[in-house]
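pipeline stage [seq->struct] | target=Glycosyl transferase, family 2 | organism=Chlorobium phaeobacteroides | residues=658
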Amino acid sequence: MIRADQKAQNDFGAGECLDTELITRNNDLQALLSEQERRIYDLLQQYHKNESELRSVYNTPIGKIVRYYKTIKQKKKTQKNAEKNDYNIWLNKYDLLTEKRRKNIIAEIATKRESPLISVFMRLNKRSLSSLEQSVQSVKAQLYPHWELCIIAEASQHTEAETAIRKFVENDARITRHVKKETNTISEASNAALELAGGEFFALLESGDTIHPLALYHVAQEVMRYPEAGLLYSDEDSLDNNNKRVNPFFKPDFNYDLFLCQNMVGNLAVFKTSLARQTGGFKRELDGAQDYDLALRFYEKLKPEQIRHIPRVLYHKRISRSGTIAATETQISGNQEAALLAVNHHLKRTGIEATVEKAPEYPECNRIRYTIPNTPPSVDIIIPTKDMANLLKICVLSILAKTTYNNYSITIIDNGSKEQNTLDLLKQWKNDSRIRIIRDDETPFNYSKLNNRAVHSSSADFICLMNNDIEIITPEWLNEMMGHAIQPGVGAVGARLWYPNATLQHAGVITGMYTGTGHAHKKYPKGNPGYFGRACLQQEYSAVTGACLLINRINYLHVAGLNEQELTVAFNDIELCLKLKKKGLRNIWTPYAEMFHHESLTRGRNDTPEKKELAGKELAYMQNTWGIDKNHDPAYNPNLSITSDDFSLSWPPRILDR
């Protein structure tokens, strides 16, 4: 028996209480409560029409029970989320190196005729001697034996550290020491080690940090599997003061737009030695972000497929005693300034007209502002609608009142509106030169066909697909989206959409989730940066929602637009993005074009047998044609869940030979 809080007591009467176990174990009662919950949700969706009915339902005894039932469900969900994200349990289950696997790997390595030599550069800092020893021991513990370790040390290193280093060098011929002169920067010392390195590839290791026993084995495997690889990186986590592994960072495959915002390559980073020498090695003026800068210059020389992501935690970064990875605030800001400079140099080298600044919601990362031409491309904002004058009015007036972009028009496709207030509103806009109205009474609702017809009749350079339930928030939304859309290699650009209650509705679409697709960070509250900042940083996703989607009209026509046959209602925007991706184009999501999305109120929910049947057919088409229920999404990570959109752990991970 669990007594309700004071509010619940006031609802049910003083001294009364609910039997939680009775509610959660009784299937019939749960079904009744769920049905009432759905009813309340439906009323919420039509709140503007049914405020009095909604109020009456909330005040009935069953309404009060439903509210308490939702509290119980939320508590259970919170507890379940904590359990499913217990990294320690996950490691013990999926990251144990058994003796059998150890022997198998050693035997496998012995059969390889050619194995790449990997140099490890370990930069010594002022951490404790015990941390130094742990770093060296983690290299010596590698199952892959073909490595060399170069310790880059200060000339005036502490006596104990000097003694330990000398001992390491004397006891293992694979370990060497390079003395960093006091006048040398870390980049200059690293370049000296680079010149002496004998490895085909080199990895970077900070003293105090450690690498997984299989780190170099997995690197070598990837190199042998992809001989053209030039840059490799892995997932990483942190070591707390008790040597406990915490804070796993499971990264996407290489994501250029995210890479400009944060050094997602991070650790473990492995570079091709010859290319590092050709590109000039580490740059002294970028100390603090020298590794980031080198990775940016590698990107400029490599094809995307030559940058390899190993989706395994191979690097463990030591957290300082203060509880942070960086030692001081000065170091953090210093590294950030160097990172901004590194990205700025990259933009200039590649001829991209843009500026870089601190990301407003995640200041340790970057925001890219692309320059719009003096004569901006024309944009046709296409909005299909039927009745729901109040929604359409909010949408159109918010565009007209807030949009600062000065070369756009609006096309409204009226798909058989009958309500007089809608007809009056459309008549009112008929003489507005900024608005074109297309009447289509003959076509049954087919979202794809309605949009395709409008695009074919448009002469604009770019098309912006928009739902009639969108409400603009940021005045520069179209400038921001256009900045991305005009970049070479970009397909579709999507916006950040919020529910009216200020929780996240769209921050990029992940394929393979829920046997179909899912929205990253869905229902995250405003102000939450998401998983390592991914809810507030510009980045590539496999798809973005068509509720607000900007695309070059030529690209739209080149991939035959939206699918009018198999995808009349849902997934047509997803397939459009996948077709663009198949052509080698990137689909970008930006958090700096923000809108409210009063989701699908015109058409409503899939609450009839006909709608449910159609939804099932469209999902089956996407699964059979595009394999969205099976294929790995490169914007995601196989160690993260596909049954939840909150970037929680996957049980088990979707990678083999663990």
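stage status: PASS
auto-comment: Residues 1-18, 322-333 have pLDDT under 50 and may be disordered. The radius of gyration is 28 Å.
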